[in-house]
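Q: Sequence in, structure out?
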Amino acid sequence: MTTDDRLFLITGATGRTGAGTVDLLLERGHRVRALVHREDERSRALAEAGAEIALADLHDLDGMAAALRGVTGAYLCHPILPGLIEATAYFAQAATEAGVRSVVNMSQISARRDAGSDAARQHWVCERLLDRTDLLTVHIRPTFFAEWLTMWWEKRDGEGHLRLPFGDGRHAPITAADQSRVIAALLVGPEPHDRALYTLHGPVELNHHEIARIISTTLGIPVRYEPIGVEEFASAMTRRGLPAHLVQHLSNVAVDYRNGVFAGTNDNVERLGGHAPLSVEQFVLAHTSDFDTSGPNFAPAP
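A: Exactly. Output:
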């Protein structure tokens, strides 16, 4: 275990990548301040593990100034909701005032100036904003999370169904745990990575037919991937009550996915995080209970 005086702020601390990063840093003897929106079972669990809890909102400049006081490095993660640019600007101002040295910024693999997704374009703008600060800045751009499979999974009559608008596009699903390892490493040793941009992938590039076969073999039940249109997918998400900003994002990244934007593999996870990324089979084995019932967002068959 390593012990030093540095303090790391983790935003989105109760989320998938944030919670994992908190755990890793604490296990390695580092001081951690976890930014949360409210006290609940998740925040209490972080406190019991040894994290200092900061109640604040990314859209509150004064709250962020207080949360960043005394912090050496921070992980910045904003949900796919409106307000990303405002939150990043507030973070940059508050971090500069507080003398924060470095930031690991969660971006998106589809981030670019001409992105069809509003969220992806805003991530690109926020990357440029942080690059203009004095912070040691590194951006991570993951492909689709392996966890997303459980969110759009339907369990019906003992069979699994994936009705998604991704055609025959390909990607290498990456787990949140693998991303947390990268984030923790970049926080602890930011110097070699200033202004770097890293895409993060799992170990094997697959299409969803291949993913369905792996899930089927691992769970021992029939699993089918049914490609659907973007419009049908968007309508299903709207009927489920997902925010318009998220639906617009998902609709456009589906087109990006078909066009190869999410494809590829590399060694960034192992090289930066020190651990080979988990495969889809390993993820399913570790999360079998998540496949026992349908996920919250599946697109029902007509």
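The longest strand covers residues 136-142.
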